[in-house]
Design a protein that fits this description.
Shape: globular
Strand content: 15-25%
Number of helices: 5
Helix content: 25-40%
Largest sheet: 6 strands, parallel
Radius of gyration: 13 Å
Structural class: alpha/beta
Amino acid sequence: MKKTVVIGASTNPSRYSYAASHSLTDHGHEIVPISIKKGSVAGKDILNIQDRPEIDDVDTVTMYVGYRNIIAYHDYIVSLKPERIIFNPGSENPELKKLAQSDGIETIEACTLVMLSVGNY
């Protein structure tokens, strides 16, 4: 299945990134949760984005962080070399989108939860 980096992962059940982490796992996808917050979600420890952890074989990055809070990490996200980046509602980012596309990374403005529920993830 598709290894997915969840940027903006949360331990808070009311957050969409929490729901997406669980839904991805339930659908058989490996997740790598990343955030500035500590904890675990869907059985995985959340990695600190400030450490810019190395992650291999990334298929998808799904974004749950607003533009202003992720600017410093644009190059890091592109360095993960994902096949695609999904910008969930509220995480739209024209600058990162352009940077990713110039590096051959597909960008999608969509909802990961909806994509999973309709079978087009």
